[in-house]
Please model this.
Amino acid sequence: MQELERGDSGIRSMASVQGSLVMYPIYKYGNEEQRRKYLPKLGSGEFIGCFGLTEPDHGSNPNGMITNIKDDGDAYILNGAKMWITNSPVADIAVVWAKDEEGIIRGMIVEKDMKGFSAPEIHGKWSLRASVTGELVFEDVRVPKANMLPNIQGLKGPLGCLSKARYGIAWGAVGAALDCYDSALRYSKEREQFGKKLGQFQLTQKKLAEMITEITKAQLLSWRLGTLANSGKATPAQISMAKRNNVAMALEVAREARQMHGGMGITGEYPIT
Ligand SMILES: Cc1cc2nc3c(=O)[nH]c(=O)nc-3n(C[C@H](O)[C@H](O)[C@H](O)COP(=O)(O)OP(=O)(O)OC[C@H]3O[C@@H](n4cnc5c(N)ncnc54)[C@H](O)[C@@H]3O)c2cc1C
Model:
């Protein structure tokens, strides 16, 4: 995730969804038949997956979701809509979260050819533009009971997936910061002012030293979290702390790197964002 986001945040986003939000729930909450049917193709990239939790009126509070399923013999009838779904227009399958008739959140695998299912693209995003985003629309979609994820019920299902994705994003933020650092370092060796390279001024060196120190600390935090996760001990709070720290660090490194590139340097306006 670090190296992917070093290239582009949108590519990391796609990979996070595929691994943490689609393959993980099928592996963890699915049965053996579902694992064998979907995981090899998702792993090889033959299948693209997406994860449908957010709705137009329920983002931060997914528990309020209104997408629902009704029992219909050997299938469930799915109705509702999901919004801001990474990969949805190109996805072969969607892991979808919906409420059953008792109001319990259930996870299921919806396939792209199921009647009544569409995934229109959302156009004009201002960032993450290499990542395609769309909606999921369900109009009386018949989802076979064999496609239900049997081993999970309730909000802890999607939240467990989001913890995995958050760990990946903690690494991704380090990659974004590394790219900013690399480009600032390169520029400081090329650009001359006052008859010297920018990098020959001690103030510039201090800024670069601080950037790479913060990046290295973030790497150590993520690495330690990975070792805890490998032994099944990483808590959601620790994962959130790592993501929070690393994203804040990446924003600060990006701000410094942008400032070093000038345009709004010492004689101009100070950048606001
Ligand atoms: C590029 C992109 C890709 C995405 N991909 C997916 C995906 O693949 N699958 C998926 O299910 N979802 C996806 N999402 C949706 C994303 O998870 C939601 O945007 C997120 O949950 C926030 O919901 P919202 O946008 O409706 O904002 P809202 O919940 O409406 O929040 C608006 C603002 O209010 C703040 N706020 C909300 N509640 C509180 C509170 N209690 N206290 C203080 N402040 C609060 C929020 O922090 C935010 O700043 C994606 C979003 C984007 C932008």
In short: The chain has two domains: 14-152, 158-260. The two ends are 25 Å apart (CA to CA).
